[in-house]
Amino acid sequence: MEKLLKPPGHQHLQRRWLLHGSSGWSRKDFNIDYHPFTSLPSINSSSCILLFISLRIYYLVLTMLASSVKLTDLCDFVENPDGSLTRNSPFPDVPPTEQITPGSKELSLSKDIPLNPNNKTFLRLFRPLNPPQNTKLPLIIYFHGGGFVLYSAATLVFHQTCSDMASHFPALVLSVDYRLAPEHRLPAAYEDAMESIKWVQKQVLDINGPSCEPWFKEYLDFSRTESEKRLINDPVLPLAISDRMWALSLPEDTDRDHEYCNPIVGGSLEKNKIERLPRCFFRGYGGDPLVDKQKELVKMLESRGVDVVARFDEDGFHGVEIFDPAKAKALYDYVKEFVYTTV
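Now predict its structure.
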């Protein structure tokens, strides 16, 4: 095994994988480094992948290298006269692990889900064999390596990587089998990647519907309040529009747990700034998808000693004062009272 550089603080582990050598298929060891700061694996190799965690997006580079497989073997293909490739992968394709057989050491289950039958693309979904009790899981969307030309979501090394991640994090891992070049040149792979993300979005919007993926329903953390789930298709502020507005508003490469969006998580606001807030006024309605977030913020402010005046009515919706003069007058009266009673 080639000696690896191990930054300070890394743990050095071994993982036995099935590899192809001159004498056929055999079990070989991979060296794997885990850094305790991130708890995310950094595996020695030649391929780059991009990981997305639903509602929390992470970028991670995984590299993989086995001394028993030559680098030339990893990129072994023949160009055909018709422009296609004959791919000679050193790794086999493997089926999903839909159930654990006696004596198996697998720590995750997996299943294949059609993405686009016309393009012959699919998704391989992994979940931990023994998910933590009473805890929802994040989602990772995984794009396998191969330079847009080689391998698939079913390739052994990528299948095993996703299986290991699902168990180790733990998380649901969705591996995308995208179209390969040169038979399908870019942007085909990019389009398949976007289609996979839109598929996930559709599942989120239909979390309580009959077409939602069962493992999503049972295990996935959508981080939604009850009012957001109840009013997912609200005619004034549907959840998809609210999400899109936040995506366009927040700093790039941040998520909904940024302090500009979610002051509950802390950040710079933790530096004794909340306690210095003056008296605050809140107005909310039971028909507003954001009402539960408002109530959470009110509770947090009150717990930090802020003087809060909150007026929540079940009757009303997001921005109702613009459409209903009676609601507008009630708001004006509340604000007038608040202003003239604040010392």
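Residues 1-68 have pLDDT under 50 and may be disordered.
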